[in-house]
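User: Please predict the structure of the protein below. I'd like the answer in structure-token form so I can feed it into my own downstream comparison script.

Assistant: Understood. Taking the following sequence of 311 residues as input:
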Amino acid sequence: MRFIFGAALALALALPAAAQDARVTFKSAKSGSSYYQMSVQLAEAMPDGIDMTVEESQGSVQNVMEAAIRGGDYVFTSPPALVDAARAGTGPFAERASPKFAEVRALFPIPSLTMHFVVRADKNAATLADLEGKTLLLGKGSFGASEGEKYLGLFGLEGKVDIADAELSNAVAALKNGQIDAFVTAGSYPAPNVIEAAAGTGVTLLTMSDDEVAQTGRSRLVIPAGTYPGQDEDVVTTSLPVVAYATTAMADDTAYALTKSFWDGKAAMTKGAPWWGGVTPDLLDNVTGPIHPGALRYYEEVGIAVPESAN
């Protein structure tokens, strides 16, 4: 699926001379995924002078690994915690450490992976504790599935919830015909499968207490009221932040132009794909390492606060 933002992007951005005709490669996710769609949208939002090529990826670990061997034209997405692990040589990078990982620099946030606990409205559920005794579809092999399973253990629900043996792609149909009471999904909001379920069946999104959020070790995120049909109140949940990165090999002017183009084009992108509406400067608080000097220049110009670790 491609999203065209013609007038966009008719923004007459005055790019620095060094960024004119800049060519960059954007590596994000598997084709067909929402994050691949986002990368296409970003590429189409770039003004004249920045030629962005979208490259399919098998995941964030691959994205970070390639930062050690790619040049100054390389842009990729990753959760900040994974970049931290690469710098420290831990986790998936324990056997593949590289001093090049220390040169990774953040540019701007993109939509976070947001946890959704979706329950049929007629099941009268409001919190995670209300999942007890219900049939829940977790799915398999995804961040949402592993995270949802973790939460069942954290909050005393293990063995008290009937786990459906089905793929997440079947969740909306299974919810509608009563085979399941609830499902878990993680993605940028508004998530298409949650919109479909809310419109066709009527659902409740479970909210979490601040103490529950803290126990998960994830970032707190609020899904605003009105995001989904029938959602009358804000929903507190957790998220895995995702950030666009480059390395110090990228010219400052190019990093500046990319960052400026992203924020200047975000409103137009939101009209075509609402998940961009959840990206605000506050998400920069999730950046745990340095921000690229070119991006910092933009944030200083427009008065956007960055974390103390940014420099």
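That's the full token string. The chain has two domains: 17-110+242-310, 113-240.
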